[in-house]
Amino acid sequence: MDSQAREQLIRAVAATIIQHSEELTALDQAIGDGDHGLNLKRGFEAVTAELPGLAEKPWPDLLKAAGMAMVMKVGGASGPLFGTFFMELGKTVGGEPDRTAVIAAFAKAVEAVKARGRSEAGQKTLLDVLVPVQAALAAGADAATLKAEAIAAADRTVPMQAIRGRASFLGERSVGHMDPGARSSSLIIATVADELNKQGLMS
Ligand code: ADP
Ligand code: MG
């Protein structure tokens, strides 16, 4: 992947999040404090403001910088979690990642998010998307399958009761709504899968 391709990928992810920020806000209004759409929009605007220079960096530096921007600009509970994910990915993925390297780095990044959030899958959080996507990736899923799994995994948070994060304060009243962080994670993963497929890097 050259720097132009990396820039296109980052811009595509940012555009998706910005387009869906009202939907994410509405989801967070139902079971949180209504800031998730705005939080992520601010984060991705900060990341795109660093383009094209950011995309000229090799993957480890790029992911570290993007992760730090997420921590500093997104805020809330999700900023440090997304930031941890990207920074940890950057630590392990290497400069010219192939599928094997991405699978290993993704697994480590998911573990880092679990440690940071003191959370695991099944608690109605972004991990309910990251964990099944990691499994699909490791099982050799193609781009369309990964995208479908990410979207379906976010849908599966609807009947769950939140055990972590602000939504857990609602107890049983958190049931019946999609988790905002799961939805935003699914949008990011779906866009990355689409872009990698478009760029001929993933079948
Ligand atoms: P805040 O909850 O501080 O307002 P956001 O609204 O930006 O932050 O993000 C909320 C999302 O963060 C939730 O939908 C959930 O997916 C995720 N989240 C919150 N706490 C945790 C945690 N401990 N572990 C994993 N994910 C979490
Ligand atoms: Mg919130």
Automatic annotation (TrEMBL):
Enzyme class of the recorded protein, top EC level: transferase
Alphabetical UniProt keywords: Kinase, Transferase
PROSITE patterns per record: DHAL
Single GO molecular function: phosphoenolpyruvate-glycerone phosphotransferase activity
EC number: 2.7.1.121
One Pfam family of this chain: Dak2
SMART domains: Dak2
InterPro entries in UniProt: DhaK_L_YcgS, DhaL_dom, DhaL_dom_sf, Dihydroxyacetone_Kinase
NCBIfam families per UniProt: dha_L_ycgS
Protein name as catalogued: Dihydroxyacetone kinase subunit DhaL
Native organism: Labrys neptuniae
Lineage: Bacteria, Pseudomonadati, Pseudomonadota, Alphaproteobacteria, Hyphomicrobiales
